[in-house]
Amino acid sequence: MTGVALRIETCGKTFADATRALEPVTLTIAPGETVVLLGPSGCGKTTLLRIIAGLETPDRGGRIVFNDKDVTHVPIERRNVGMVFQSYALFPNMNVAENIGYGLKIRSVNASERKKRIAELIALTGIEGLEHRRVDQLSGGQRQRVALARAVAVQPSVLLLDEPLTALDAALREKLRGELDRLLRALGITTIYVTHDQSEAMALGDRIVVMRKGAIAQVGTPRDIYFAPENRFVAEFVGAANIIEAVCEGGALVLPGGALPLANGTLDGPAFAMIRPEAIKLVAAGGARLHGRVDSVSFVGDRQRASVGGAAGKPILVDVPNTMAVSVGDKIGLSVEPGAIRLLPGDPT
Ligand code: ATP
Questions:
Q1: Which residue among 9, 49, 77, 304 is buried most deeply as judged by most CB within 10 Å?
Q2: Ligand 1 pocket: which of 13, 38, 47, 196 to mutate (most atoms <8 Å of CB)?
Q3: Gap between the Cα atoms of 82 and 95, Å rounded
């Protein structure tokens, strides 16, 4: 099974009550690619997903193209999309096997072929033994496996997943995330996955589309988004970030507590720098180029998170190894690799 190329062309959405849910968005998704739409509540993720599904029409000028076919005005039942939502939306009057086979039945796939496909999907999603259970006798995780099996049973051109794991507890969410990742790779279906959970986005996305207020804030691989955010919103939404107002001068970031060397080629002038807490090392004060004082430190198991005052214009968060002795009031030095300092454009909004 191979996925289709999906093109979203200047798709915006203004609802009847004049709510502008989506600014015109353009995005090309490769066959078999998994793209995650990530952003805070109300940023337009679901609206974009519903436009791709055919549940909403984009504003005038917007187009949805599957391979070379314009499907903008093709209704959902003829678009061949598979969907899974946060709420399970299974047929309560059917058992597991009947739910999974429903789409095949309405497509007139014969009984023996259907049986074979259902068995494959049951094995693929790890729900063997539950074939004859009613869906109200399943756990949340089992229901989502059934929903997924049902969605992919008909070999959809595009698979659309809207927060499918959100209703599950943290441990199960992480387990299913791994299974889903393997499944999507095995099937090779072009997939759009909506979430507001950044670790889910990182784990599943070939690319992540970070959205904000109905617009795209950045598109990139999980590593691009994490290490090279293009603006402050992305830097702060994905992972923890210190955003520091500073001046670049003579190849260094000049701060109240000292100066940090920058990568070559940095222009002089005012700047906003982003440094991740794990990119900063706590070192002995003597010989360090940037100095500060430990204001607070909390032990979180795999590491300690310290807040350091006096180094920059505001407290800096630093990840400290969990075995390192560090106390409030310690006068310390800070060191950062030049490559770990990311300068953000002038207006850091
Ligand atoms: P969440 O993570 O909370 O589900 P989201 O990013 O998926 O949010 P959308 O559901 O796409 O956001 O909503 C985007 C905006 O459009 C919101 O302001 C929402 O209130 C609005 N909206 C969504 N559907 C409609 C509608 N049918 N009529 C009017 N406004 C709507």
A1: 49
A2: 47
A3: 19
Six-digit token pair at 227?
């290490």
- In the DSSP assignment, the letter for residue 134 is B
Q: How are beta strands 63-66 and 69-70 bridged, if at all?
A: antiparallel
Kindly give, in sequence order, each residue whose CB lies less than 8 Å from that of residue 322, ignoring residues fewer than 6 positions away: 299, 301, 302, 303, 304
Give, in order, the Cα–Cα distances in Å from 246 to each of 49, 243, 347.
40, 10, 13
Dist. CA 52 → ligand 1 center (Å): 15
210-244 per-position pLDDT tens digit: 999 999 999 999 999 999 999 989 999 999 999 99
The token duo for 279 is: 């990119």
H-type alpha helices, 238-325: none
Residue bearing the CA closest to ligand 1, atom 9:
44
pTM for this entry? 0.90
Looking at residue 149, its amino acid is A
* pLDDT 10s digits, 31-58: 999 999 999 999 999 999 999 999 999 9
Closest to 343 (Cα-Cα) out of 240, 271, 267: 271
The rounded distance, in Å, linking the Cα atoms of 296 and 181 is: 38
By the 8 A CB rule, do 81 and 52 touch? yes
**Pocket lined around ligand 1, Cβ cut-off 6 Å:** 15, 17, 19, 21, 39, 41-47, 196
Q: How far apart are CA 12 and CA 47, in angstroms?
A: 9
At 345, list the tokens: 């454009």
